[in-house]
Design goal:
The complex is a heterodimer of chains A (168) and B (216). Chain A is an alpha/beta fold. Helix content of chain A is 39%, strand content 20%. Chain A has five helices and seven strands; from the N terminus they run αβββαβαβαββα. Chain A is globular. Chain A starts with a helix and ends with a helix. With 216 residues, chain B is α+β, with helices and mostly antiparallel strands. A four-stranded mixed β-sheet of chain B has the order 4-1-7-8. In chain B, a hairpin with a 4-residue loop joins strand 7 and strand 8. In chain B, helix 2 packs across helix 5. The radius of gyration of chain B is 28 Å and the shape is flat. The N terminus of chain B is likely disordered. The chains are: A alpha/beta (168), B alpha+beta (216). Chains A and B meet through strand 1 and strand 2 of A and helix 6 of B.
Chain lengths: 168, 216
């Protein structure tokens, strides 16, 4: 009996210790945290204004070597699937705004390059490595979170098309 | 607000359950159970039998079936309306609980004309503490220019004298970066306090004007 109580309390303790870590990282299935960020080219963008569209968030940094390649690939995806309802937002986690703006100018893409200077958005999405992409469905729920530099492959596109095919 | 939504989110199943139970509680007739529902659908069966033909009309063209579907659709719409009403009541209740009238302070923002100023951001400080930094999208600015009034901030303050500082950022005359501030000292009494930030054009000086009004 005492052993059973001991095991239960140990399990409870483990659950309490593990919960905060999983809650911060596992945003999949939950409503995507809303945000408004300034774009490198001027103006602001708010996520909730894109409800009803499939939104692809791409977190990048000017110090990330593979981010430029990935942004270019995402630019192609945006061009292909824009008419189907895809909106891509690239979010910089750079500390230096001028560096991020230089990077954005050097790698022109057909979607807004946003600046998360306070790191509030990257914290809200639990971004731990770069590049990371987040796919949000038309109802505003996080559906896929991928932290893989080689992640934009056929299976990724299939996931994206699945979301685009899903009506509101 | 996200925190508030997440606070109520666990209540969603309870709310749905209340909505489902509500008609019985009010003494309304319970909706037909799946077992009893075919009564309307089964009505044309004798007619088909009388005809003695196996080519019975399709259920889709059955007027009784259509009526049943319509009734079900009305029930669904009614249920949706009840959920919306309940959500509204819960929202009001939430506001009353989180921001009681004796401590409530709300700040609103409105724009008039806007030819000399393109709003980009507003930072609010109350008693030297930043309470909100709001970025405006073109769509939000357009809504304000059409006469919309935005509740920029709602919070709690104890009775006494307080200072509100508002910093406005955006594009000024000749599309140049423009930052201006405005401040007000106000007295918080026992009732709710409402303040309005008003951005208007001063045509004579070709400059925007920033004003903080105290709604008595």
């Amino acid at each position: 009996m005492i052993r059973c109580i001991g095991r239960c309390s140990l399990l409870a303790l483990l659950l309490v210790l593990v919960q905060p870590a999983t809650a911060a990282a596992a945003a999949v299935g939950e409503l995507a945290p809303d945000f408004a960020l300034p774009a490198a080219t001027g103006g602001n963008v708010r996520l909730s204004e894109h409800r009803g569209e499939v939104v692809l968030l791409a977190f990048w940094s000017s110090r990330c070597a593979v981010c430029a390649t990935q942004l270019s690939r995402l630019g192609d995806l945006q061009t292909t699937y824009r008419s189907a309802g895809l909106t891509t937002l690239a979010i910089s986690v750079d500390d230096d705004i001028s560096r991020a703006a230089r990077f954005a100018r050097a790698h022109p893409v057909r979607f807004p390059m946003l600046l998360d200077l306070r790191k509030g958005v990257s914290r809200a999405y639990g971004i731990e490595r770069l590049p990371t992409t987040v796919l949000i469905d038309r109802r505003g729920r996080v559906r896929f979170l991928q932290s893989d530099e080689y992640g934009i492959d056929n299976s990724y596109v299939a996931q994206l098309r699945e979301l685009l095919d899903d009506p509101l | 607000m996200r925190t508030a939504i997440s606070t109520w989110q666990p209540l969603a199943p309870v709310v749905l359950a209340i909505c489902l139970v509500a008609p019985w509680v009010r003494g309304a007739e319970p909706p037909a159970t799946p077992g009893s529902a075919p009564a309307a659908v089964a009505a044309p069966a004798p007619a088909a039998a009388a005809g003695g033909s196996s080519s019975a009309p399709a259920p889709a063209s059955d007027p009784a079936g259509e009526g049943g579907t319509r009734a079900l659709d009305e029930q669904v719409q009614d249920l949706k309306q009840q959920v919306v009403d309940l959500n509204k009541d819960l929202f009001v209740l939430e506001e009353e609980l989180l921001f009681p009238a004796n401590t409530q302070v709300a700040v609103f923002l409105s724009m008039d004309v806007g030819a000399f100023f393109g709003l980009d951001s507003v930072t609010l400080r109350i008693d030297n503490r930043e309470v909100i930094n709001y970025l405006y999208t073109p769509r939000e600015t357009a809504a304000l220019l059409k006469g919309g009034v935005q509740r920029l901030y709602i919070g709690n303050l104890k009775a006494g004298t307080h200072e509100l500082v508002a910093l406005f950022g955006g594009k000024g005359p000749n599309d140049r970066d423009y930052r201006r501030g405005a401040s007000i000292k106000f007295e918080k009494g026992v009732g709710a306090k409402y303040l309005e930030l008003k951005i208007s054009d001063r045509t004579r000086r070709q400059q925007p004007e920033f004003e903080i009004k105290d709604w008595e």
